[in-house]
Structure formats: structure tokens, C-alpha cells
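$ fold --in a.seq
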Amino acid sequence: MEVSGLHATGEWPVLDEETRVVYRFLAEVPDGVSTHEVRARTRLSAESLDRAVGKLMALRLLCASSWEKGTLRAVPPDCARVQLVWPIVRELNRRQREMDAVREVYSELAQVYENATLHGARTSPLEVVRDLPSVRQTLTRLAAEATEEVITSQPGGARPAEALEESLARTDELLDRGVRLRTLYQHTARFSPVTTEFVQHVSQRGAEVRTQGDGFMKLLLFDGKVAVTALRDDRCGALVVRDPHVVDVMRTVFERAWTTAVPFRPRYDPVTVDQALDDIKTTIAHLLTEGLEDKVIARRLGMSLRTCQRHISDIMRRLGARNRLHLGYLLHSHRVPERAMVGRRVPRS
């Protein structure tokens, strides 16, 4: 086992007990010992001794004039480390110089690319971004340029863990710079541990988070000047809007939803949770009167089909509906008030 091989493969010898026994014995005899005496004193087999000596030689912890008829002498670990590590350090320095050179080239080209793309984007009030990596790059750039406020509204219920993780560094950077951050989720996001943990983290750093039942769009708004929203036919893409009139309309829609939304406090609050649940049931009742199917309502509110149907069953029980047809009649024909749909909450076990 040669040192050059260690450098190339990174496979370092494992110091087992036999290897430690050999090194400990040789360290006690600074002048060196013959291999025959080492074998006799340590009582190791020839194969075990050869293996131990090979590992110690590879680590520069032994030196020998000749394996067959010479002697073995222990080398202090500090000296061995210098002999073994110095080539690695030299190689790392060489690699660092290469990395610095490559980084300088890419940094120069990145500036060229950014100037070109910004120039092209500013010539049009609408920019379609089709692939997810480009969307993330665009969001990162817009977040870095924001100085006053970033607004986000994320319908669809609980946020995926990977989406929250991807946005965490960007969010922390904004809050570090004192940029105001407001986020709007649907009520169903309150029942996601991952989303709740994320909200707790950003809230402690000054972000404001609220939830709403329905009626708001997917939106990111930077300093009230640039908006990013989802494409109708592409879940991975995004539409970047710079037209001031359209951006102003999008902000107005958000502010209306924000005004009636409920603050998202990570710490469990039964009153707030009950309010959110009641709002969810009211929203479901309204969507039923519009003739939407259960699966469409579930997808729109960011919940499972089973959870949606459980809410519908609860609404039927509270209104005294005998079946789904009777429920539709009660909701549509009699305009049942919201307090009747909410009803009296049954204590949860």
C-alpha cells in the first residue's frame, strides 16, 4: 500500500488492534527491532505482522532499511504526519488556485449574462420562464434586489418540505437586510408540521404570516414593482410581470385577502384553530353551491379528498341534511347563513 495510492484513492488504513500492538512495541524500543523479534514478542502470525507493518509503513509510522534482514523503527506521529500530509496540502493549494481561476472566469461571464437578461426582460412587461431552475434563479435575483418588502401568497395547503427548504436561505437573507416579509397561506397549511416549523422560524425573525380559506392567487411581489405568478398550463414555470398597472391590481387583490386573513401563530391556539376550521367549512359550503365536485374542492383548498368529505359530512350533520341532494337544496335555495354552517363545535377528543 503506497502513499501515492492513498492520495489518489483516499482509502486510509484502519488501525486495528494488531497494528496498535506492533506500533506500541516498536515505540518502546527507539533504536529499532528486527522483524523476527517483533514477531516473537508480539506473538502475531507472519500474515498478521505483514499486514500491520504494511499499514504502518503506508502511514509513514515505520521506517526500515530492508524488510528481510533489516530492522524496524517507529517514527513519531508528528514527523509521519508532515511526510504524509504535505503532498496533500500541496495538491490542495494547486486545486485552490485552479478554483480561483475558474471562479473569476464564471464571475465575469455571470455579470455579462445578468446584464443581457435584465436588458431583454425590461423591454417586455411580461416574461415567461418555463423551467424550474430558471424560476429559482429569477426569484433569487429579485429577492436580492428587493429593498423594502416582499409579499408571497401560496394557495394549495401545506407547503412541500423541499420548497420550504429551497426558500429558507433566500428568506433569511431578506430578513437579515431588514426587508419586510408578508406571507399568506391557506388554512390547511396550519395542520402541516413542516409548514408550522418554517413559520415559527421566520416569524421569530420578523416575518408576518397569515392564513385564508380561499380566494387568493399564487403570487410573489417584490417592492411593489415586479410580480411572479404561476403559469396556467405549466406547474414548473412562472410568469414575471413588470407592467405597473397589472402589478398594482395583483397587489390590491392580495391586500384584500390579507385584511381578512387570520394570523398564523405557530404555538397551538385552540380558538384560532377552531376559527380556521369553521372558515374551511364555510368555504367548502360556498364551493358546493357553485357545483364543484369533492375532488375539485379538495385540490383547491389543499387537502385530501377524505378530509374534504369529512368536512362535508360535518356540514350535513350541522344543517340536518338527510343526503347530499338535500344539502344542496338547503345551501342553494335557502341561503343558509354562515353561523348555521359553522354551528356549535363539538369538543374534539
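$ fold --in b.seq
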Amino acid sequence: MKKIILILIIIAFVLLGGFYFTYQYKINSGNGANVEEIVFSVESGEGVKTIADKLLERNLINSRAYFLLYVRNQKLEANFQAGDYVLNKAMPLKKIVSILTSGKAISKEKTIKIIEGWRIGDIAKYLEKEGITQEKKFSELANQPVASWPFAFDKPSFINEIPESSSLEGFLFPDTYRIFADADEASVIEKMLKNFDLKLSAEMRADIQKQGRSLPEIITMASIIEKEVRDYADMKIVSGLFWDRIKNGQALESCATLAFILGVDKPQYTIEDTQIDSPYNSYRNRGLPPGPISNPGLNAIKAAIYPEHAGYTYFLSRPDTGETVFSKTYDEHIRNKEKYLR
């Protein structure tokens, strides 16, 4: 008899243990990997069971029972608030509950658009103009060395690849974002860093490693490309041209780096400009500058990883149209300068 009781106790522990681990898995995992945004509405007066049914119908959760159990265990039945919320299928169940009980609906959000090639200072000015954050506070926070990490949110893993003395310049991903009207500087930065981590695919990271290059090198190159040309096809050619210069021990001679140093864009820079004493001066120094000169978009990053070697050695951008004009010889380049930059 004692043996039977012992067996029953063991079975009970196994079942309880299995249930516990299943419960933890269900509440801490999403219903797939799709991060496409889905607008989900909670109507005034809707009960938890109705909300669960609607979430299951939209494939945002994979278990109605575990949803209801989690809500009951957390005593959140009365905390759901009416409104439209942005969810996705990759969100863990507990995250979805947190959002739906937070009251932070879309109506309380604001849309911002960060442009490719903006620097931290540009982003800071824009956010202050939009009435979201203070320019000085955002700049100070984003420009701090990553070694100090002054944020409450966890450091994304890619940050460990950045030199400790570097700022977040280059890694604040340009995109259109929805943020809460009461967002602070850190929450905006967190959203941009998470987006960078998301957009840089595993395949891209693997290809960077295969090339024997580092993430900071790629982002630095991408930041220059972003400021030099607009079209993706041109970006790839310019990338090939610049990587060839580095391979051949030549200076990059990028006007974008002079604009970064001087803080002003010119159709054509003077000899004196090219002699400025700065580690970012790619006319005087060979190789890449110490770090990114802007925050590049996805096309510029992809161009830096996947360059096109088209046999060109020089290029310029027409001030009137923005068109990139390539040349294979120095004489041809001089003729193009006289034609388009005079």
C-alpha cells in the first residue's frame, strides 16, 4: 500500500512539474516569429473571456486557457482597458496582457520619422521640435560612451561589439516609429536600438564575419555611404570603390567626412578643407575614420556588406539633380568636376 501511495505521489509531482513548465513556456513565448504589427481593439465593457477569444481568433495567442489562467493568477481581470493596441504574433502572452492592461493605446501614441543619415544631434533637435524630448538631454544620453551604459533596459548584444569609448552614433536606426506622447529619452533610444538589432539579420551578421570585418567597420562605412549617395545601386558601387581604396592602401577621400568635421555641406571642398587636422579627415588619413559619421539606413548597411566592384575609381554627385556620376580615370573625373561642379 505504501508503495502505491509513493508511486501516486511521484506521479502527482511529475504532473505538477510538467504543468508548471508548460505554463511558464506558454506565458513567456509568442505564437510564432512574425513581428508584423497588428492593431487589436478592446471594446468598452468587454470581458476577459471575450478578449481571449478575439486574441485566439487573430492568432496572437495559442491558448485561451493559459491566457485566462495567467490573467486570473495575476488578478488582472478588471484591469483591461478599452482602446486600440499594437501587438504582434511574436509577443509573449504575458507581454500582450501587460500591454492590454496598461491603457497605453494608439490614441496616446505619436508618430515620429527619423531620416537616414541623421546624426545624434539632428535626431535630438527633431525630437525637441516635436515636443517629445529635450535636445540637450537626448544628445548627452546618446553620446555617452557605451561602457557607462546609463540605461535601465538591458544592453543589446551587438553593443558588446562596439568599442567601449564609442557613443551610439551609427546604431540609432532610422525609421518611422510610434512612441507614447510621454516617452522619455531612454525609451526612444531603446526602441531605435531594438530596431537596429531586428533589422540586422543573422545572415547579414554571418556575412560580416565571413568577410573578416567587424560590425563597427561596416556601420562606419555605411554611415559614409549614406551621406555620399542616395540610390541603392549607386551605394553598392560606391561601397565597392571605397573598400577597394582601403584594400589598395589609398585614402578614402570622402567629402562626407569633411562635412562631418566642418558641420557644413559644400558642392566642392577646398584644398584647405582637405588638410584639416582630424582623425575623421579621410583625405589625410587612410582607412576608415574612428567611428560612424551618421546613422545609416538599411540600404546603406546592406551596400557596405555587399559591395559591387564595377571598375570605377572616382565619383561625384551632381548638385542640381543628386545623380551620381562615376568615372574610371582621374582625367575623366576632372572633366566631370568641371562639367558639373563649376
